[in-house]
UniProtKB/TrEMBL annotation:
Names of required cofactors: Mg(2+)
UniProt keywords, alphabetically: Hydrolase
Protein name: NUDIX domain-containing protein
N-terminal signal peptide: none
Keyword hit for Cytoplasm: no
Amino acid sequence: MKIRRRAAAYGVCRASDGRVLLTRGSEACAFPGVWSLPGGGIDHGEHPDDTVVREFAEETGLRVRITGVRTVLADLARLPDSSIEHTDRIVYDVEVTGGELRPEAAGTSDLVEWLTPAEVAARPLLPFAAGILGVRFGGDDAELIGDLPPVEPERPGRVQRFGAYALATDPEGRILLTRIADGYPGAGLWHLAGGGTDFGETPEKAVARELFEETSQRGRITGLIGVSHRYDPAALGPEKVPLDWHVIRVVYRLTVDEPTVAAVTEAAGGSTAEAAWLTPDEAANLPLTELARAALGRTG
């Protein structure tokens, strides 16, 4: 089975009268004639925030400002060439700050329009866009499929990874952190529990799986903290081979209602050396990854 993975960023942009901005797929895209939210693939090394701003400029001629992260999701689709594509999608709320509306020239979209809710419901939409906008999917070309058995994609020297992480706390206010094992980027630093999403896996399922594998805890998602990325073209993998490494990360807030002793349950040789419940003061005095430090700082 030929499989593909991609990460993409999109924006929901509404006018003051409630109309929403949508683009139509051109003959150059996988699903011509099907409408979607403006956006597209995240370039290697690019922050997702920059992607959505760039894609709006390319596809609509408009300059936009991000006002928030609406949601993060993932889906599988069977493409016209019979391959299976897993797409991780970050969806932002954006507002127009300038520019003039015009269609993309010689790209993957060929039309851009402000549409009323009734007009949106009458257009064929990509499934993820239909779900975001609360209308029934009307396209026949993009076939969503169910969960697949895990299949490991080929990993070239250039690696773009999509990960889901947890800022997990318990009823006493303790914070759950993990220490990165030797041989992995950031070895010895304390990090948020989490890791890469598997093929066919949503970010929510991935963060729950990673939380249990790395800490033996089960938690519930209570919010979305934000999205970040890290680009390290000189990172070394476990085999000491340089990787052109780009990781896109979504961070959730989780609550562990019934905490147990934190313990690593994943197989030996993994990226996590140990896990621990820590008070905020204890956590503040540890060497932290920039992701853990940023998440703790953002949430106080």
